[in-house]
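Running co-folding for pyridoxal-5'-phosphate.
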Amino acid sequence: MIRQALIIEEGPGVSFQNKLIPKGALPIDGLPLVERSVRNLFAAGVEEIFVLAETGTDWYGKLTETYTGLRLISNEQCKLHGDTLVIFSNVLYEAAALTFLINETQRDVQIISKIGEFSGICRLSAETIACASQLTEGNAAIGKQIAALAKAIEKTVLRKSNILQWYKINNEEQRNEAERFLFSTIQEADELRKVRREVLLNPGPATTSDSVKYAQLCADICPREQEFGDVMEWICGELSLMAGKPGRVETVLFGGSGTAADEVMISSCVPDDGKLLIIDNGAYGERFAKIASVYKLNFEVLKSSGFAPLDCDAIKAKLVDGRFSHLAVVYHETTTGLLNPAPELCRFCHERGITTIVDAVSAFAAIPIDMDHDGFDFMASTSNKNIQGMAGVGFVFCRKEALEKTAAYPMRNYYLNLWDQYTHFKKTKQTRFTPPVQTLYALRQAIIEAKLEGIENRYARYASCWDELVKVVKKTGLRMLVPEEIQSKLITAIIEPSSPKYSFDEFHDLARSKGFTIYPGKISDADTFRIANIGDIRPEEMTAFANILEDYMRSIGVAL
Ligand code: PLP
């Protein structure tokens, strides 16, 4: 596994349209050369990219603002700690070149053409980079560092490729040539790696990027290896940072679905003398109650409508009057798309020492969450919803103090015990039982991509998709089950038209034939179908689906 990359911007730059710019800033089809490289590297699973730039530090500095994980090394030695992909900024290349190097068994290797031309695309071991660094003194000029690295690259194993395409660009004329003659071939080579697109508008598993799908295709590894422990530790650390301030949250991973994570919380986070209030305003609140009954906990259920706001005052009064020690609530009820005021309720609980358990399975990684600020003690989510990974990993986020208390709670089950799983991982960097290895690699890639996008931007993209859907729902005269102001904008329950010509199955099959998967409703007291807008989907795709919806409704005489 290669977790970091180094981009080298060598020399004084190039003249382009009478301006001196860094080579990496040369545009190809409107995108700076190096930016294409940055995207390729992140898509190949690199977590951090360092730039060693002899020129254009201002330009590169701006680029680092656009890409989380991209850093400029300014006048200090390369502090790279693992094997590294090293790419010169002026190379236009097809993305498969990176896969080629990642799969290499040699650790110091460069790609060359059949006639022996150096490509500027290489892999260096940590030891080689450390050696090259030692060749330069403490605060050596960037030029010297680049020269030392170039010397190290000269000594690497040469891997000839007759197929891979690349082009090194050193002036405007070469840029023009590359754009005219080579770019379309490189684009086609990249296109050939694409997986057929299916847009999932069901409420998870959500649509994933190709890079997340590809992350599962990696060398076999025994999950007891330190290397895999490091990957899981990184995943836990990054997920924790998405749920709270540094050092405040611990994330515990389980092989299992979202329900497994919910069951972990209910079974592990309430002591024998605890009393739990469960809010049920949809299928997932109801599931919390079923789990609590299986474990014979002391609990009560407060039922509320699936499409009306919760009565917070009534809940607060019940919590106090009933002397409850714990509250369990679903943040986003995926059943209907209703967003519950979980932060308001949980903050109230915190002021009174009541422990809070939150199902954020379909809220996390879309709705920004800070567990301290929101008053969440325990929170569940899963790898296949808004984080945009594959199904198979459930995670429980824990505020540290709340987690410590569970050490003394009874162990009511084995596989799903939170404290046991947490302490074992802390001690060994291993899960107690076989983890879903490839799903975790996909989750790692999904996290890299979530960081690049940012949770707030992700929610804004989801909301734009929702806007596209709602425009057409209103235009066709359909009605939504939940009032707009309390909707999550992540999933929409739409009331089925009363026309006898309407058939969910027909509508589903029509949408599916055009690459969109939709989902039936899930509540007994209203006939609905549901459209989710989470996952790796784009507003223009939602517009395309909305047109299908409109056409179908017209075809059965429903649309206005
Ligand atoms: N909780 C919520 C809010 C959900 O939306 C879901 C699934 O959609 C679950 C729990 C259960 O997750 P899973 O089906 O992965 O067990």
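Result summary
The mean pLDDT is 95.
The first strand starts at residue 4 and ends at 9.
Job closed.
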